[in-house]
Design a protein that fits this description.
The chain is built from 38 helices and 24 strands. By secondary structure, it is an alpha+beta fold. The chain has 5 domains: 170 residues, no CATH class; 127 residues, Alpha Horseshoe (Serine Threonine Protein Phosphatase 5, Tetratricopeptide repeat), CATH 1.25.40; 284 residues, no CATH class; 43 residues; 411 residues, Metallo-beta-lactamase, Chain A (4-Layer Sandwich). The strands form 5 sheets. A 9-stranded mixed β-sheet has the order 9-8-7-6-5-4-18-21-22. Strands 11-10-12-13-14-15-16-17 form an 8-stranded mixed β-sheet, covered by helices on one side. α4 packs parallel to α6 and α17 runs antiparallel to α18. The longest helix is centred in the middle third of the chain and has 33 residues.
């Protein structure tokens, strides 16, 4: 039968889905071509796989494509009944039809089929044919003839389909350009009436949503991830709005087709981008779009999936394909988060791997897998999804290798005999697994990716990582002073495996451009083609490998252990067996060419940083044989023969003595003379003194990494710790102390088992360590907005975590709750392959375009299983993937609305609600709720919404009435009514910088102007905020001991203003509620006391600086001390009874030095 234009549009969408979802068998069943078309596809196109295929042959093939497309290359399309709801039948394209646009559709389907063939092959030279597809489309795109009015509508739709195919086939900006051209056609297709435009603006049309999807893909391929996500979010949200308004459901075939064509791919692409940005949690969140409900709460994505999956044909295949892709992304996210082997997720990880291996690779997966399936054993070769699954399996191999490396490093350092014995019993078998996995990566994985440049680059990234990890293991073994008999055999096997692994790709090592024309280097990698993510892994892996080889072969001091000598002999023996008599030359020449290539790349394509050139100079020196320190003296520092300054500076008034450096420069010949007179021995520090001092300093520094700190009381308790004195940028000038806040939980032994750093601004790390805490105490970091005084020390925390990894061999990762604006400020940290290992970003507003209620989606944290794990708490993964076997203790963190310009142009500012759940209790609710407003101006109904001036003045039309009526400006105070403790920021009192005085605020409008304009509440906003909090309490709650903490004081509020204004708030507004000014060292024990009526009531206490015990808030006194006006907190007894000199001595010590770190009580 002859197809209509609407039927062709549906068929076009079906064909695109088949290509995108790799449903090639279904596509082959549908399409029938002319004899010329069949011959070209079945015979000539296959020749593109020949290695002798050249540009001349390419032109011949493309010419034939042009020739075939001139006629009716697609003669018919069969839609079987399995396409439920889509009109079935055989649709034909014939010569002589009155509607000549049918020939153009015949040509379009032919070109789509060519694209499908190229994509299916997934290997050069097929991949390079995509550019020719664009040329073929451009040559055949129809022209719209205004004279042909009866076919104008069909022609416009045909042109639209061509432009969208061009957008799908083109690259980057070109793809976007074609989508934009298609956008201009949409009004003439869907209508230009005002109601048409209004509906289009509100929901979009199927054409708009298709355009947005293609534009999102174009942005994604161009690296514009945020723009891409905005487009994908728009598709998803507009689709659900449209479904809701028109009451659509999956039984409607066109709606179902759009669902599988653009909506599900948008969900997948959002997850893909999250993984690229190291946002594994949000990738999992994107995969759980089943939680997304439309406006009427009648349909969910999961409901559509369930309905369509029950069908037996096309739609069921699409849903099954989506679920497989979802599983692959979930596996990648679990690996990225390093959460694949915890008790809650391990079973799910293995279950998904088993299902995917069976369905895609037709192999059996086990949790001890060491082999990859051979490429030839799969029925459909080299499908993109198959290669992706192989990549994730290799990533899992690599994670297991890293855990083995950590285990071996711990084995080499520990003095625990039992641990050593247990490790020795398992390390040989673990190394055997590593060898088998490296062999299968070397051989099998390479065959899966060979010929596809994109997949090859990913391969070399993983190849470099394996070299890095295995070389690190070799280095640990090389340094072992006492050789272990159980390890000798496996060390040799591992070394030979690494040599073979390196040798498999030695011919592909990069060389400078001038050498690429040589036949010997024709296969060499081009560094400029590697992705920015792949190049560091590749280069770092080779750097580690060559460094270890040089130490074994060149450095005489590198052969000081039995293992090192055995490694030297093993390398010599192996290389002789493969025809290389000179081990040093075997590695040295290739390494030096690589360094030259990296220098060239750095200069032409990167930042040309001098430090990297310098580092590579030092790498080259590793191949210069090092002398024996015991017999060779350095002439570099002080020798008068080498430095002319001796004769210039030396004088009779101040004679120079090179021997003054004594034992500090043992390598210098001039220092072998007598160092100094015996009379100086009692005052002159010697090398032992130097070493002891530095060693003790290092030990003290490392103590803040190695163990968590311990604090009173010795019971499960939640604490708030103030670490901030003054706000804004004045602490950045070094005149005063800034900081942040810390909330922590202690266990029965007093040790911290949960720590949350809040807004780590200037001086946070300094204040934190000086208060007697350890870096290991931090599990979670929360950053409310992108101002420097709220995030300045976050990078210091990450750098210290990386320092900790180097010192104690433990990679500790913290969860970081932040905004999109903060994420942008720290892209250099998050994108750094070394530093990002220590953070798991959780972005508050990443879903704001797709889900207006994103603030109602909390982050939940639970204590993870296994004390051997470096992270103690972890975020509960979306979909509750890790719910099994976890602790009942839970922390729930909700972001709250704050009104404070953060100047990031991407995000609002936020506050937080933290609810600590200890499980149900028969004696009442024991949850503790802590609220943090962050920086915010005061917003309440009396100024906005109900208090809108346009609502009061009836003569004026309120242009913002939709906003006011929706009450989108949520009251700040209303968000914290259920809190036990509220921490809020005041900023300042009045605009003193403008020389204003309190009497200037006689007029209420002046107060209102200040509240509306400033970024903080100031005095008048704070009065209203506290008043609303207090008045909202019910009569039963009025006796509730809700604690208010006031912070972020401007430095102008010195001279006792801080606690004077606090006293005014207490007596004037809070009616008995306690309120404290926050300063560095304020330690609040947030607790609830079970009353006789069974209800749990807040009963907070504060730490006294003198007796170091906790006392009720109403018994706490303040005392100012020092030039920075530090506030110290005393219990009533200590405040009255402590002698002044005793008090001041202790306060001076704390002010200058701080508290000692305590690891036990």
């Amino acid at each position: 039968m002859k197809p209509t234009i609407d039927q062709l549009e549906d068929i076009n969408a079906i064909v695109d889905v088949c290509i995108d979802r790799e449903l090639y068998e279904l596509l082959d069943e549908m399409m029938s071509f002319s004899k010329a078309g069949n011959d070209l596809l079945k015979k000539d196109v296959e020749k593109l796989g020949s290695k002798k295929w050249d540009s001349k042959k390419t032109k011949e093939i493309i010419y034939q494509m042009y020739e075939v497309s001139k006629e009716f290359p697609t003669v018919q399309i069969s839609i079987p009944t399995s396409f439920e709801g889509i009109k079935s039948g055989v649709f034909t394209f014939r010569h002589g039809e009155k509607d000549d646009w049918l020939q153009q559709w015949s040509c379009l389907f032919w070109i789509k089929t060519v694209r499908a063939v190229l994509q299916k092959k997934n290997k050069e030279p097929w991949i390079s044919g995509f550019d020719d597809v664009v040329g073929l489309l451009e040559a055949n795109i129809p022209k719209i003839n205004p004279a042909s009015k009866h076919t104008m509508y069909a022609r416009k739709k045909t042109v639209f389909a061509f432009l969208m195919e061009l957008s799908a086939s083109a690259r980057d900006e070109a793809s976007n350009g074609y989508a934009e051209r298609a956008r201009y056609l949409v009004p003439s297709i869907v209508g230009t009436k005002p109601e048409d435009k209004k509906e289009r603006d509100k929901y979009g049309t199927r054409y708009d949503r298709w355009i947005w999807y293609n534009m999102g893909l174009a942005y994604q391929h161009s690296g514009l991830h945020h723009k891409a996500v905005l487009e994908f979010n728009r598709v998803i949200s507009k689709f659900w709005d449209w479904v809701s308004y028109y009451d659509k459901n999956p039984d409607d075939p066109r709606s179902a087709l759009e669902f599988v064509f653009v909506v599900l791919p948008c969900v997948l692409q959002r997850a893909s981008i999250s993984l690229q940005l190291q946002l594994g949690y949000h990738a999992l969140e994107a995969m759980e779009e089943s939680n997304k409900v439309n406006a009427n709460e009648t349909e969910t994505l999961q409901a559509w999936l369930d309905t369509l999956s029950l069908r037996q044909g096309f739609f069921a295949q699409c849903i099954n394909n989506y679920l497989e892709q979802k599983s692959i992304f979930q596996i990648e996210a679990l690996l990225q988060l390093e959460r694949y082997n915890y008790s809650g997720t391990q079973a799910i990880f293995n279950e998904k791997m088993q299902a995917l291996w069976k369905s895609k690779l037709h192999e059996t997966w086990t949790s001890t897998q060491t082999k990859l399936p051979a490429l030839s054993r799969t029925p459909s070769k080299r499908l993109g999804s198959h290669v992706k699954l192989i990549e994730q399996t290799v990533a899992w191999f690599l994670q297991e290798a890293k855990e083995l490396a950590t285990k071996i490093k711990s084995f080499s350092k520990t003095k625990d005999g039992q641990f050593k014995e247990e490790a020795l019993s398992t390390i040989p078998a673990d190394i055997e697994k590593l060898i088998e996995r490296m062999d299968t990566v070397k051989d099998t994985y390479w065959h899966w990716v060979e010929g596809n440049s994109f997949d090859e680059h990913i391969y070399f990234s993983e190849w470099g990582k394996f070299l890095n990890v295995s070389a690190g293991i070799l280095e640990v073994f090389r340094k072992l002073k006492h050789s272990q008999a159980q390890l000798k055999g496996c060390i040799k096997d591992l070394l030979i495996c690494i040599l073979k692994f390196y040798g498999s790709q030695k011919q592909r090592m990069p060389v400078p451009r001038s050498l690429r024309i040589c036949k010997d280097y024709s296969k060499s990698l081009r560094l400029e083609n590697l992705r920015s993510d792949d190049l560091p892994d590749f280069a770092d892996g080779l750097k580690s490998f060559y460094e270890v080889m040089a130490r074994i072969l060149v450095d005489k001091n590198g052969k000081e252990t039995d293992n090192a000598k055995a490694m030297f002999e093993c390398i010599e023996e192996y290389l002789r067996s493969v025809g290389n008599a000179s081990p040093i030359e075997y590695f040295k020449k290739v390494h030096l060419r690589l360094l030259d290539a990296l220098d060239e790349y750095e200069k032409e394509f990167s930042e040309a940083r001098r430090i990297t050139f310098l580092d590579r100079c030092n790498e080259r020196l590793k191949w210069v044989e090092q002398g024996d320190v015991s017999t060779s003296r350095c002439q570099g520092c002080l020798s008068p023969d080498n430095l002319p300054y001796w004769s210039i500076i030396d004088s009779s008034e101040q004679p120079l003595s090179p021997g003054a450096f004594g034992e500090l420069l043992r390598c210098e010949a001039v220092c072998s003379v007598k160092l100094q007179p015996d009379s100086n021995k009692d005052t002159q520090l010697n090398h032992d003194n130097y070493e002891t001092i530095m060693h003790n300093a290092e030990l003290d520094f490392t103590r803040h990494f190695r163990e968590v700190s311990a604090h009173l009381p010795q019971e499960c308790a939640y604490h708030f710790l103030g670490l901030q004195r003054w706000n804004s940028l004045t602490p950045a000038q070094g005149k005063s102390v800034g900081g942040g806040y810390f909330i922590y939980r202690t266990g029965e032994d007093g040790k911290i088992d949960l720590g949350i750093a809040i807004d780590p601004g200037f001086d946070f790390v300094r204040n934190f360590l000086r208060m007697g805490f350890s870096l290991r105490d931090i599990d979670i970091v929360m950053i409310s907005h992108a101002h420097a005084d709220h995030l300045w020390d976050f990078e210091s925390i990450v750098q210290l975590l990386n320092e900790m990894r180097g010192k104690i061999g433990e990679t500790r990762r913290v969860d970081v709750i932040l905004t999109l604006g903060v994420y942008s400020r720290f892209k250099h940290v998050i994108n750094n392959s070394t530093l990002r290992k220590h953070i798991n970003p959780l972005v508050i507003d990443i879903r704001k375009e797709i889900d207006p209620d994103f603030l109602n989606l909390p982050f939940r944290f639970r204590k993870l299983d296994g004390t051997e794990k470096p992270s103690r708490w972890g975020v509960v993964l979306p979909g509750d993937m890790d719910s099994d076997g976890q602790s009942s203790m839970e922390l729930v963190i909700n972001a709250t609305r704050a009104y404070h310009e953060d100047y990031s142009d991407e995000s609002d500012s936020f506050g937080f609600l933290l609810t600590f759940k200890e499980g149900s209790s028969s004696s009442g609710n024991t949850d503790v709720c802590f609220g943090y407003t962050g920086d915010t101006k005061w917003v309440g109904n009396d100024l906005y919404s109900e208090g809108c001036p346009f609502k009061i003045e009836k003569n004026y039309e309120c242009s913002c009435s939709p906003i006011c009526n929706d009450n989108i400006f949520e009251s700040v105070a209303s968000q914290y009514r259920d809190c036990d403790v509220v921490l809020t920021h005041i900023g300042s009192l009045i605009k003193h910088k403008s020389s204003e005085k309190f009497e200037d605020y006689k007029n209420p409008s002046k107060c209102e102007e200040l509240i509306r304009k400033e970024n903080h509440p100031y005095l008048f906003g704070m009065i209203r905020l506290l008043k609303e909090l207090r008045s909202a309490a019910s009569s039963e709650e009025k006796s509730k001991d809700k604690l208010i903490l006031l912070g972020e004081f401007g430095e102008e509020l010195r001279g006792g203003i801080r606690y004077d204004i606090v006293n005014r708030f207490r007596t004037g507004i809070l009616d008995g509620w306690p309120i404290l000014p926050v300063d560095v060292g304020l330690d609040i024990w947030m607790k609830k006391e079970n009353k006789s009526n069974g209800q749990s009531q807040p009963y907070h206490k504060a730490l006294c600086v003198m007796c170091e015990q906790y006392h009720p808030i109403d018994k706490i006194k303040f005392y100012r001390f020092g030039h920075d006006e530090a506030i110290f907190y005393f219990c009533e007894t200590c405040f009255k009874s402590t002698p002044e000199d005793v008090r001041d001595a202790k306060l001076q010590h704390i002010y200058d030095v701080g508290w000692e770190l305590k690891n036990s009580i």
